[in-house]
Design brief:
The chain is of the alpha/beta class. The chain has a single domain, classed as TIM Barrel (Alpha-Beta Barrel). It has 10 helices and 11 strands. Strands 1-2-4-5-7-9-10-11 form an 8-stranded parallel barrel, surrounded by 4 helices. The protein has a two-stranded parallel sheet with strand order 6-8.
Length: about 325
């Protein structure tokens, strides 16, 4: 019975997500390589030196003492999330107003606010290196890293990977991830295998690749003496994380599985049940879509989910 239920959920969810791709992000169809920057990871990286390992701060982190509320997207592109609809100062005003709605429902854990910026953008064309992904321009990474630092916000850098290996994509973000307030997001939807093309297939990562990212973040935090890093892995389809049952919490890094995808509240609750409630690992998240969710879940709806999300993201 469970397998039959899951197959039914999978079909409906896949169709809904395909609709999202054709209207908005669509493998970043509305984002040119020039806008993204087109920098290879090696071009993004800078000389990091060889800092001495320092694990003294790894006992500290934003989870579990806080809940996180994030705004997601790409600068200047309103089709890719609310982050692209406003300049940072105005965006922060909207984020704080949203946070007040959540605090009014449940403020038993303080809400820590932040942004999730798409740092590598899947493309519908192969590009010169055949990776089907373009890196976000350094100017955006620099400016949003500074803005979030100045305003006591978190910043998550989200990688879409294309045909790159996951680590080959996020390792180039070390110049920004070394900052204490900057964390990592991975979007398996756009991680392609073999001859797959973003937007035509739903991508995936393996449990081994998630564990590799967890361990890399532990090493990074120790290298630069930061507090614990958070890793968000987005998921709306059960195939997006292969061998998910093999993923375990890793000491000194906090893992969040975020229920992604859009639709009416009943569908989102069903999806949450499949990818979160039935498959718990460590921390839990949900993403809401201002333009596509109809109607959008209220703060009361979100905080009534079981388990209650630790992370809430708006796109």
């Amino acid at each position: 019975m469970m397998e039959h239920t899951r197959r039914g959920w999978t079909l409906r969810k896949r169709l809904h997500r395909r609709q999202l791709m054709s209207t908005g992000l669509g493998v970043a169809a509305g984002l040119s390589l020039a806008q993204a920057g087109g920098l290879a990871p090696s071009a993004m990286a800078q000389d990091q030196g060889t800092p001495t390992a320092n694990t003294a701060n790894l006992s500290q982190g934003v989870l579990p003492d806080h809940r996180l509320l994030l705004y997601y997207g790409f600068p200047g592109n309103e089709n890719m999330g609310i982050l692209g609809e406003y300049e940072p100062e105005e965006l922060l005003t909207h984020l704080e107003a949203e946070a007040e709605r959540y605090r009014a429902v449940d403020d038993s854990r303080p809400w820590k606010l932040g942004l999730e910026l798409i740092a590598s953008v899947a493309q519908g064309a192969p590009q010169a290196d055949n990776t089907y992904v373009a890196d976000t321009d350094k100017k955006w990474l620099d400016s949003y890293t500074q803005f979030t630092k100045d305003n006591d916000l978190l910043l998550f850098l989200d990688v879409q990977m294309g045909r790159r290996e996951p680590k080959d994509d996020y390792a180039g973000l070390e110049p920004w991830l070394k900052e204490d307030h900057v964390h990592l997001g991975i979007d398996p939807e756009f991680h392609m295998r073999d001859n797959e093309i973003p937007g035509q297939e739903i991508g995936q990562v393996t449990a081994e690749e998630v564990t590799e990212a967890q361990n890399w973040l532990v090493d990074l935090a120790g290298k630069y003496g930061t507090t614990r890093k958070v890793l968000i892995v987005h998921q709306f389809h059960h195939t997006m994380i292969e061998d998910k049952d093999k993923i375990k919490p890793v000491n000194n890094v906090d893992l969040v599985i975020d229920e992604d995808g859009w639709g009416p509240p009943e569908m989102k609750q069903e999806t949450y049940n499949v990818v979160i409630t039935q498959e718990p690992i460590e921390y839990n998240g949900i993403k809401l879509f201002y333009k596509q969710d109809d109607p959008i879940m209220s703060a009361e709806d979100v905080l009534a989910l079981d388990p209650v999300p630790d992370v809430v993201i708006y796109q």
